[in-house]
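Morning, I've got a small favour to ask if you have a moment. You're getting the sequence in one-letter code plus the fold written as tokens. Thanks so much in advance, here it is:

===
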Amino acid sequence: MIRAYKFLMRPTASQQAALGEMLRDHCSLYNGALQERRDAYRHASKTSIKYGQQSAQLKDIRAFDPERQGRWSFSSQQATLRRLDKAFAAFFRRVKCGDKPGYPRFRGVNWFDTVDFPKDGDGCRWDSTPHDPVIRVRFQGVGHVKVNQHRPVAGKVKTVSVKREGKRWYVVLTAEHAQPETLPATGSVVGIDMGIASFLTTSNGEHVENPRHARKAAAKLEPAQQKLSRFGRVRRDKRTANHQRAVQRVADLHRKVRRQRLDHAHKTALGLVRDHDLIAHEDLKIRNMVKAPTPKPDPETPGSFLPNGSAAKAGLNHSISDAGWGVFLTILHAKAESAGRNVIAVDPRNTSRTCPECGHVSAENRPTQEKFHCVSCGHLAHADTVGALNVLRAGLVRREAAPA
């Protein structure tokens, strides 16, 4: 099993400057490789350059510019070129599938925030001073950097990455270790219905409150973003330290919301995994759910459009994104795998419109957001609880049909 760890680093002023130079030089390498691919395709009869050709040029690049490119790890530079190669592979895959292509773009220094080291010991070394009580990680060209290790790393470290978030620096590890001991069986099964009014509702009738972290932070985030937008109208070469402080303020508020959302997702998922052997949830297509509605041209007035409910849909999209369903489900599957639990995704269609007593399906069964009243048998319940019950039943059917 592969598990990731993320720790805060405590670099000195000189080490922080060196880390910034490392990101800048890898960003330059990335942009240079991207420019080479674009020029080759445009001016050399649509010639495509692959990763192997660009990786073979690294030796000459390092010798030509030893101050900027020669001081960093060769394998980390190869990882940067692989990163570009993956971006092009994803671009061609989207073109083939008919999706929005999204051609790889040049990265600014502030938008290139990660450097990968594919192997521990090649340009980097985790816990490089094992006899020192302070945990340190060593990077070629930077030195031994202190790490705030808040939990032990289990297994053998495979890869190491440096990540910058605002003014903070993190080290991200991936470690391979044996399958941990599974949790004892509880004999309990549960279905969950994701929502906006409540973050989720279980088939047992329990409701988990939606924390709405982004909405709570809006009172501080809105004036901070307005202040930043005023600096955005100033020419780049005339921006001051006040602009940098405004950028940092907005980044800090967004970071806090992101960490709060992750904390809530981890705690909620852990509670479900500890208490239940099987967890069934809706197979939500969140990317499709947050799409903007299609414009409706007015046939009587060319160039104008009819109302399409975009304002209301935008509010719903913000609420869905704020809830963080995708993050929660990813964490739930990871924790369930480690604990030996079974998580099943089921088709969400009509789960909140089907009566759990008689099986009657009708949109009229749900007259309001919270109320479920079957028009056939008169069954009355909370609509989210009904949805969770139907999700659980569909999950149990899928589990029974899996061996066949």
User: Anything to note?
Assistant: The chain has two domains: 2-176, 189-401. The longest strand covers residues 156-165. The longest helix spans residues 241-275.
